[in-house]
Amino acid sequence: MYQPALHLIIAFGETTAALKMEACCQQEELPGRLIPLPQQIRAGCGLAWAAGPEAETALTEMMERQQISTQGIYTLYY
For 6-77, CATH number? Predict the structure, then answer.
């Protein structure tokens, strides 16, 4: 049976930001993947980035360097 795990969820206002996040994470070999936006979160785009909570610092530093904007960063069971 599936056990929800704690994830870092990054929500985006625009699909282009979500796709840029995916491309930059692949290029820099950072963890995570695009997922449908969880129901608990409201944002302008239907996509989010999910990764382990331990990756928050690396991901936020990369988003700052690459100028990727978000509508919020959450930690929740998913």
Answer: 3.30.70.790
